[in-house]
């Protein structure tokens, strides 16, 4: 049996990101392995625990699980924990790697009984594969089409029972029939500062780095509610402490975060670019997503799934049917005066 906790199985498809191998290895090293080690999301943890316990008591494979939420909140980590906690092997794939029904058929037919199949970015799977997945999830069976035209026949193929864990940053893009076939959907929320401080305390301990509580809290409050960002900022603070000496205290935190353009409330360069564009070029909005994306030189999908959820959550941006609007808080944060004569935006 394969080790369910392995971090880089051969078929793990990692989406291209600007992160280096070292960053990915660092991320892997800090991943909690058990539900008890997983910080925050107490509701989701309780729900998952019950689902796994019930399956274990009945000696059956756990129901399919959908993990939804912005990047870096712990979806991949939870998928690994599900396999680890239920002592099952884990197979990792991703939507972009499944571009034909045949890709999925090959994957499904090679699963061993009880295996956990993780499909990251499941909203990016090919439509033909999605349809095959419906039957596979429901009946552990697929129909394989052989031949073309009038002579085409479908051959049913029984599969080993498995648990599908899907992850998505865009649950709205999943077709309803697919969404409905998951026994449980976990919507991951942004973390509060106290939870992120705990994530950082754990990471600092694993890195044997002495970071005082006030410095941890400062990093936490500038991490956009996201454990991945908290860990990454900690790494920059550690770099700073190593190079400059003087420890990883408040001073190192301030200096390192300033160097990397993390502003006092944790907004990064792209967050600020989006807000500045709406405020200065579009008079506060409303502006359509695509226009906004082109103006800041980013993909619309990145703006929508990476930038906006946090700006909405902290009340700096609203999404209206006519487009995105910067709120009063955003103007204030950027230090730009709003035109006050009969302003259209007074009530946002
Ligand atoms: N609840 C948590 N407690 C402790 N660490 C966490 C938690 N959630 C995430 N992390 C840390 O944050 C990092 C990113 O988490 P993960 O890769 O699971 O995010 P993700 O939701 O899969 O992101 P993406 O959508 O980009 O794939 C992990 O390396 C892990 O160390
Ligand atoms: Mg992930």
Looking at the overall shape, the CATH architecture of the largest domain is 3-Layer(aba) Sandwich
CATH topology of the largest domain: Rossmann fold
Distance between the termini: 56 Å
> Could you give the order of the helices and strands?
HHEHEHEHEEEHEHHHHHHHEEH
Name the CATH superfamily assignment of the largest domain: P-loop containing nucleotide triphosphate hydrolases
- The number of helical runs is 14
Rounded to the nearest angstrom, the radius of gyration is 23 Å
State the secondary-structure class: alpha/beta
- Work out the number of β strands: 9
**Helicity level, as a percent range?**
40-55%
What small molecules accompany the polymer chains? Answer: adenosine-5'-triphosphate, magnesium ion
Sheet-strand content, in percent, reads 5-15%
Biggest sheet: strands side by side, in what order? 2-3-6-1-7
* Outline type: globular
Low-confidence stretches: 1-18
Count structural domains.
Answer: 3
